[in-house]
Design brief:
single chain, 310 residues, TIM Barrel, seven-stranded parallel beta sheet, globular
Length: 310
């Protein structure tokens, strides 16, 4: 088979078509004082140049803006103060500035996708990880705030697409049996995730749905709208093989992000080749289940990239 471009390879995997080699991607959180705009762009471009992934998943570590006078939501009633954000202002605008610089400076056709943390994850950051405590104390106030956050995230996805973005990495947190009941997720959070994902899928063509954490509600989640489904298959069921049997679309994963930094390059290569063998040669992208450690050895990252060939 003729050599494909990065974009052709990624989209062939999405559509379960033959590829010249398995696509590969990986990412970590940069240690930046200001994790967006020019510092983020420079860090991401250097990362892409050094490691040559087939797609670039950009980190999005800026918090969502809160109303004036709020730095943290401590009173559940304050969730009612949230309103949909303008995606061209504040921290959203800072992130789009970084993304545009990355897209312009990349020098390849690798898809550039930004990260969106789902309404649960975004809200949990804004209240010191007390979201479920607030929800059970004042569910109607929290629901109102979550709705505003969901609209903000969906509008932001549209704004990134309008700037030439290729898609979104949607980090879906909270849907774990150790965090909430299945009924709570199904009734409160799932409609919000589906609304945002529907908008994301209309805005771009290369969208990864990441089911975050352990004890995940895979049966309930895997058919949510996405181009590619990724979960920490080495840490939580199902395995790649089991997931392939349950999910009809493209899947990603195979690399244990928790132990990646401890392995030798030879062990990284072996794990990568095992994942490709388990998942199959089509409809699969080799990735970690989540972000690898920032202190991962360079030789391990290079081994992961080189495990799929040139």
């Amino acid at each position: 088979m003729a050599q494909m471009t990065r974009r052709e390879r990624c989209l062939a995997a999405v559509h379960n078509q033959p590829v010249d080699r398995t696509p590969v991607g990986f990412w970590y959180h940069f240690k930046l004082d200001h994790p967006s705009a020019q510092p983020l762009a420079e860090a991401e471009l250097a990362f892409a140049k050094k490691y040559d992934p087939d797609f670039l998943k950009v980190m999005h570590d800026l918090w969502l803006d809160l109303p004036d006078g709020l730095t943290l939501i401590e009173d559940p009633e304050d969730w009612r103060r949230l309103r949909p954000l303008n995606p061209r202002e504040g921290n959203f605008a800072e992130q789009i500035k970084a993304l545009k610089a990355i897209k312009q400076g990349l020098g390849s056709d690798a898809p550039v996708i930004d990260t969106i943390f789902n309404p649960y994850a975004s809200a949990n950051k804004l209240c010191g990880k007390k979201l479920m405590e607030h929800f059970r104390a004042n569910p109607e106030a929290v629901k109102q705030g979550l709705r505003a956050l969901s609209i903000s995230l969906a509008d932001y996805a549209d704004a990134w697409a309008a700037e030439g973005g290729d898609g979104i990495y949607y980090a879906l947190d909270g849907a774990q049996t150790t965090t909430m009941t299945e009924a709570e997720y199904r009734e409160v959070f799932m409609p919000l995730d589906k609304m945002v994902l529907d908008r994301i899928m209309r805005a771009g063509e290369f969208n990864l749905l990441h089911i975050h954490g352990e004890n995940i509600m895979f049966d309930m989640l895997h058919d949510l709208p996405s181009s590619v489904l990724v979960w920490s298959d080495k840490l939580t069921p199902p395995s790649l093989r089991e997931g392939r049997g349950m999910h009809k679309g493209c899947i990603a994963g195979g690399i244990n992000e928790m132990t990646f930094h401890e392995k030798t390059p030879a062990q990284v290569t072996a794990e990568a080749l095992d994942a490709i063998s388990e998942a199959g040669s089509t409809g699969f992208i080799l990735t970690p289940g989540c972000a690898i450690s920032t202190d991962s050895p360079e030789e391990n990252i290079l081994a992961l990239r080189q495990s799929v060939g040139a």
